[in-house]
From TrEMBL:
<dbReference type="InterPro" id="IPR036390">
    <property type="entry name" value="WH_DNA-bd_sf"/>
</dbReference>
<dbReference type="GO" id="GO:0006950">
    <property type="term" value="P:response to stress"/>
</dbReference>
<dbReference type="GO" id="GO:0003700">
    <property type="term" value="F:DNA-binding transcription factor activity"/>
</dbReference>
<dbReference type="Pfam" id="PF12802">
    <property type="entry name" value="MarR_2"/>
</dbReference>
<protein>
    <submittedName>
        <fullName>MarR family transcriptional regulator</fullName>
    </submittedName>
</protein>
<feature type="domain" description="HTH marR-type">
    <location>
        <begin position="32"/>
        <end position="134"/>
    </location>
</feature>
<dbReference type="InterPro" id="IPR000835">
    <property type="entry name" value="HTH_MarR-typ"/>
</dbReference>
<dbReference type="InterPro" id="IPR039422">
    <property type="entry name" value="MarR/SlyA-like"/>
</dbReference>
<dbReference type="InterPro" id="IPR036388">
    <property type="entry name" value="WH-like_DNA-bd_sf"/>
</dbReference>
Amino acid sequence: MADSPSSRASAIAEHAEAMRSFMAHAVLFQDAVARSAGLNGTDLQALGLLLSDGPATPGELAQRTGLTAGGAITTMLDRLERGGFVTRSRDAADRRRVLVSAVPEAVFAEVGPVYGAVASRWNEYLDTLSEEQIRFATEFLARAAAFNRDETERLRRAPRERS
């Protein structure tokens, strides 16, 4: 049986509201996690990128995080290095390049317990779902992340419009 147009429109509107709420609370949660570790949101996201994507030059990390103003990336890296969250080393292949690496043990010591508590709650919920539902949810989140990444890149490339 096909959905009625009004039922589908209502479901899409409910989905849009749930997505807005999810995105707002995800950002606020990440900010709270960062603050619990004595960091700011950009610091935490930079650490996440280094953990997931591996070492990067300061320039590459600036591009990934969107930090483009003057010495902002250097200031952030100095702060993260002082906190023991990252190390800087010379690239073995090109000694002129500096590579920044996350120190997983330090990052996980600070934020692991918070993420562990959330993961525990998620795992309890996932236990109530079928494998098919979990696979759908995984695909949904992967696509949402890809859309967000693509739109972030588009917004960073677009000239800022003034009204």
